[in-house]
Structures are given as structure tokens and as C-alpha cells.
Specification:
The protein has 351 residues and is of the alpha+beta class. It contains seven helices and 19 strands. The protein folds into three domains: 67 residues, Uridine Diphospho-n-acetylenolpyruvylglucosamine Reductase, domain 2 (2-Layer Sandwich), CATH 3.30.43; 150 residues, 2-Layer Sandwich (Uridine Diphospho-n-acetylenolpyruvylglucosamine Reductase, domain 3); 113 residues, UDP-N-acetylenolpyruvoylglucosamine reductase, C-terminal domain (Uridine Diphospho-n-acetylenolpyruvylglucosamine Reductase, domain 1, Alpha-Beta Complex), CATH 3.90.78.
């Protein structure tokens, strides 16, 4: 295990902002991860676990403790009662793994194609896209329990998966260090195409699309929105979707709709089966005065996707948060809806 000091963190994130890590370890094995946890505990240091850096905002001050980057790689494939099990290292890049499953004739993860980051990050926020969530494919999460240093295997039923959440970012936040994720897939699974762009894409096709065709369509849509893994252009320097789609109770939805209709707007919404309705956060952002391509100095909103706050080249974390707050206040003032951010905020104190 190699401990480095004062390591810049901005280059390790897709947003590209933030200061240095006081200490930094890259763990390529379970043993190294375990040793790094013990090293930080012995010195009473705060710890932040970094994966692919695709859903994180680092403070300009950096992080005063140990940043532990999980780079555990590898995919171990097994079979169980007609299902294909993939035990995937937490540091394994996500989209190449999805591509591997699609090439193997498995469609269970195809709608999650093109999402940046690593496998270890998928259970934390129960990543989802185009109507699919990774929770439906997760069987087991292998982790270290930081309370006592034990290796544990948590079944999906113990992870309390919900919309963009799990025990790993709610009631048991910071308790578990994820090492490996087991995904359970079947050749019988067929993704449900509900997203309008996908429905439109395949509307003229005779017969159901194949998994490779769906993957290419999803990648094309994400690429058009600048939501593929980061490239050189400024639209790709983001933390992905910055705000969660709000899910409103009937009274809150009625008030939001009343305010929208007073402005001559018809808000899109999707029933959640419990009386609540989900509202596209992108619609709220754009209709609160922040269209695609909006600029505020070194920060702005992607020209392709209204939910992506971007670093236009030399932005600071403070500028990112300032624009986030401006958007939140405008949406709440106009529509009486409080937008919740999706990224993890590191080094900002109590945030």
C-alpha cells in the first residue's frame, strides 16, 4: 500500500474542480483497501472513497483526510439456476462491463449503457436511466464493514434500494466500503422501452429491437446530450445529471401544476403508483430561466442537457455551487419545488 500526499483531485473527476487530498491511496485489492481503512482509523483521519469520479463535487479546499480510490478490477462469471452471475470489482469501468453483458446476449443492463463511473458506484445511488434501475439486477454487494473491519456480503434485500438511494447513501452512509458487486442476469429479460426518445427511435422498426440495437440507441442519445464519459469539449465536463427528478405528493403536485398553468405551461409528469408523480427536473430547470447553453462566467449548463452543470474550463467548486443554489432558489420560487442535487459533495463541511 502506497500513501501519497497532497494529490490533486480535480483530474480524477469528470467535473474537473476541487483541491488536493491531504493523503491518497489507490487500492487495487481487497487487502490494500482493508489496510488503507486501518491506516486512516489509526490516525483518526476522515475518509472519502473515490470511484470513477463521475458523480462528485470536490471542494476548492480539497479533502483534509485520506482519499481512498478503489481500483479493484476483474469480472468473475458464474451460473446459478439458469441465471448468469457476474462478480464485478468495484473499480471496474461500468460501461465496458455493460457492453460485455450485451454482447453475451443479456439485456438486463442495456438501458444503463453509457453511464460513466465504476461498478462500485452503481449500488450506492441505485443508478438508473431510461426507466431502468440497477437494483433490479443486483444480487449481492461485498463490502468491508468499517465499524469492525469485517468482510460482509449484503443481499439486495438488505440494501433498501429506492429512487437514487440505498443504505449506502442514507441510513448506513459511510459504514460500508464496497469491494465487489454481483449482478444476476438472464437471457429471458427484455427491457421495457418507455423513454420517448427510445420509443421514437424504434417506432419504424418491425419487431422488437435486439439488445445490441438498444445499446447503440442509448449510447447515441447519451452522446447527443454530452452524457457519455468525459471528452475534451466543455459539455462533457460535468458530474452528470446534477438534480434528481422530484417525486411529489398529490398536494405538492397540484400546487406545482397550478403555478405552471398560471404561466401558460403544462408540466409533464409520470405516475409512481402510490398517488405521487415524478416531474422531470430538466423541465423545471429550463422553465425557471436556465435553458441549455446558459452561461455564468466559467460555469454553465450543457448545450445538450439541461440537468448538466458544466465546467467551461477553469471553474471553481464555489462557482458550481453558486449556480446550483441559484437554480434551486428559482425553481422553488416559481414552482414551489425544491430540487435535490445528485452528486456527492466532498470537503464542504456539513453539506
Amino acid at each position: 500500500m502506497r500513501v501519497q500526499e497532497n494529490v490533486p483531485l480535480a483530474p480524477l473527476t469528470t467535473l474537473g474542480v476541487g483541491g488536493n487530498a491531504r493523503y491518497f491511496v489507490e487500492a487495487r485489492s481487497e487487502s490494500e483497501a482493508h489496510k488503507a481503512l486501518a491506516w486512516a482509523s489509526d490516525r483518526d483521519l476522515p475518509l472519502f472513497v473515490l470511484g470513477g469520479g463521475s458523480n462528485v463535487v470536490i471542494s476548492d479546499r480539497g479533502f483534509s483526510g485520506l482519499v481512498l480510490k478503489i481500483s479493484i478490477a476483474g469480472v468473475d462469471e458464474r451460473r446459478d439456476n439458469g441465471r448468469r452471475l457476474f462478480w464485478v470489482g468495484a473499480g471496474e469501468p461500468w460501461d465496458p462491463f455493460v457492453g460485455r453483458t450485451v454482447a453475451a446476449g443479456l439485456a438486463g443492463l442495456v438501458l444503463l449503457s453509457g453511464i460513466p463511473g465504476t461498478a462500485g458506484g452503481t449500488p450506492i445511488q441505485n443508478v438508473g436511466a431510461y426507466g431502468a434501475e440497477v437494483a433490479t439486477s443486483i444480487r449481492t454487494v461485498r463490502a468491508i464493514d468499517r465499524r469492525d473491519g469485517r468482510f460482509v456480503e449484503l443481499p439486495a434485500s438488505a440494501c433498501s434500494f429506492g429512487y437514487r438511494k440505498s443504505i449506502f447513501n442514507t441510513e448506513q452512509k459511510d459504514r460500508y466500503l464496497i469491494l465487489t458487486v454481483c449482478y444476476s442476469l438472464s437471457e429471458e429479460e427484455t427491457p421495457e422501452l418507455r423513454y420517448p426518445d427510445l420509443v421514437s427511435f424504434f417506432s419504424r422498426k418491425e419487431g422488437p429491437p435486439t439488445a445490441p440495437e438498444i445499446r447503440e440507441a442509448v449510447l447515441g442519445i447519451r452522446r447527443a446530450k454530452g452524457m457519455i464519459a468525459p471528452g475534451e469539449e466543455e459539455d462533457s465536463r460535468s458530474a452528470g445529471s446534477f438534480f434528481k427528478n422530484p417525486v411529489l405528493a398529490p398536494a405538492a403536485f397540484a400546487e406545482m401544476r397550478r403555478r405552471a398553468e398560471a404561466l401558460g405551461l403544462v408540466p409533464p409528469s409520470y405516475p409512481q403508483g402510490d398517488g405521487r408523480r415524478r416531474i422531470p427536473a430538466a423541465w423545471l430547470v429550463e422553465n425557471a430561466g436556465f435553458p441549455k447553453g446558459f452561461r455564468r462566467g466559467a460555469v454553465g449548463i450543457s448545450r445538450r442537457h439541461a440537468l448538466a452543470i458544466i465546467n467551461r474550463g477553469d471553474a471553481t467548486a464555489a462557482e458550481i455551487l453558486a449556480l446550483m443554489g441559484e437554480i434551486q432558489r428559482a425553481v422553488e420560487r416559481i414552482f414551489a419545488v425544491r430540487l435535490e442535487p445528485e452528486p456527492v459533495f466532498v470537503g464542504f463541511g456539513d453539506r
